[in-house]
Amino acid sequence: MLPAHNTILPENSDLEESLHVAIVVTYAYPYIGSGLGVVAKFQAEYLAAQGQHVTLISSNIPHTSKRFVLNNVTYIKVPALALLEKFHIPVPLLFFNVSAMRAIKYADVVHVHDILYPSSCFAALLAKFYKKRVVITQHVPHIDYSNTIINAIEKIVFYTMGQLTLKAGDAVVVLNETVYRWIKRYKNTVFYLPNGVDLALFNKPTAQEKQNIRAHYNIPLDKFVVLFVGRFVPKKGVDILYQAKDPAYLLIFAGGGTIPDYIKVDETVKVMGPLPQEELASLYKASDVFILPSYGEGFPLSIQEAMATGLPIIISKQNALSPLLDSPLIAAINRTEADIKTAIKTIQNNRKLRKDMSEYAYTTARENYSWEKNTTALVDIYRDKAQFNTTHTPKVIRVTTSWDDGHKLDTRLAALLKKYGIKGTFYICPQDREFKRTELLSTQEILSISQDFEIGGHTITHPHLSQITPAQAADEIAQSKTYLEGILQQEVTAFCYPYGDYNDTVKALVEKCGYKLARTTQRYAFDVSPDLFALPTTFHTYAHYSDLHKILAFAKFSPRMVKKLWDWEALAIALFEHTCQTGGVFHLWGHSWEVEKYNGWQKLENVLAYIATKKDVIHQTNTELLQLTDQREKSMSL
Ligand SMILES: [Zn+2]
Ligand 1 centre from 630 Cα, in Å? Predict the structure, then answer.
């Protein structure tokens, strides 16, 4: 018989057992340090308010008691050394004591903040050892320190400790598109979840309130006030903003870090140090516009705070922060003195624009940036119940295709692709030993296809490159490039391994030869790989019986779906739809001779026609895949 108390639970009860969550961050309370600490503390408190058992592990700097409870959150403060602070690197070394380790051992979920901290790595590995679910929040992309040695060290740390931490993670939470795309290269389970903001504290002031605050801070009532909030570090753009000072408006700088002396002594601007939250909230209320001409950001809380206050927002174009900021009512500018001045003055002189921008910021913040909403989504991630992209996942959908061997039927294929406006790369093998010369494309036909498509190298005779000598392989690879460039009179940058056969030596040869990428025959990938000489694809226009396990997983083991997806036309469309949901790259490839052999022309046309119905898709050749990657990610050079 069932225990009696089971019967009192309603059917479909969503009363789940509360979770034990251990959160690990370098600084949390009383010294908060940076945005990481603010986020960790708010999340801890809102999770606790939802009934979860939350322990927050952070460094005991400055020294307080080792363990205390505040707002239902248990704080465990561990001994720490802040050796690197004097180089302006806020990376303390935490020494986990018994109670910190015990908190991890008895947690259901261990949540660490940022992969580049030794404490995150240690906590994640320890959690894995105890078979706990590990969730990572990655706040910032690569930070460009002015010191090249520090940059190099950061890179090394990323590829060792950072990768180790990522590997131990079950899911990664990111705050913006730049970080999303970066982490996506190393990890599949990435969730975009904007931070919350204290909406009660950061709120629109009344006219009277605004006047009172200005009087309190000695800010003239008739001045148009432009507020900057952030640390005084190069990436925030303090210098450029200072150069853009103008008698028409008053610049106010608020934040921690070292304020340059020439700014400090200048009486035409106003400089405030780091302020407690309440005072900061007042300062936003006293201002007319918020500006942050920064780069290399996570999603700065200051933007969200300013939005919640209803300030018009000026940010730098250089950050892809959030699709929510991708609005004409958010000013995104170049980080130049001229652009900053123009943006401020445009907003200053246009009352209607100012009102609309204010309204957009205020409403957007209220609809999207509550901590309740944030932590509810976080609990779903903790419980492994979150749906991908249910929030505002930034999506860029790219489609590319590639077609191997250079068979005569490629002309038919090219016509079909052209009909549906789909781009791609034809990998041509001029003396493919599997075909008679008369079955292969003529020089004229290659030239004609090159009018609309990219032509790539595929060796001269189609050998297994790993099974011939390196010298022979080098010849095959180099000669195919020279041969095609001779015909096309332009650089050939894409290469494709015959049979998808390659090893490290072959890969190095292709790169040395001057190719920029090499495609493999790996399938079921939805993005550009970090290794450009092992680019995967999404789908081969052919029924691979060996793919059953992939199809099963993709069909979520529903027999009806498996039956449906067994047909490659349906599977290709399902995989394309998946790409549309998550964003990323859909890479379709095949052989024209194979399409012919298995009577697949109609299937292929149906797939292409389906893809063509989607409007917000970027069509690219294989080499163009890299251009967009470079452009979007050049600000983070890891
Ligand atoms: Zn081939």
Answer: 28
* Residue 574 Cα to ligand 1 middle (Å): 26
Q: Are the beta carbons of 531 and 495 closer than 8 angstroms? A: no
CATH class of 5-196+373-382: alpha beta
∠ CA(356), CA(337), CA(87), 5° rounding? 105
CATH architecture assigned to 397-545+584-629:
Alpha-Beta Barrel (3.20)
pTM for this predicted structure: 0.54
499 CA to centre of ligand 1 in angstroms: 6
Ligand 1 centroid from CA 603, angstroms: 21
pLDDT 10s digits, 206-255: 999 999 999 999 999 999 999 999 888 777 888 889 999 999 999 999 98
- Domain 207-368, classified CATH 3.30.160.20, yes or no: no
Measure 368 CA to ligand 1 centroid, in angstroms. 49
CA distance linking residue 212 with residue 282, whole number of Å: 10
The CA angle 561-566-571, to the nearest 5 degrees, is: 75
Tokens representing 300 are: 């700065």
Could you tell me where the beta strands, DSSP code E, fall in 79-132?
Answer: 80-81, 93-94, 109-113
Residues with CB under 5 A from ligand 1 (ion): 404-405, 498
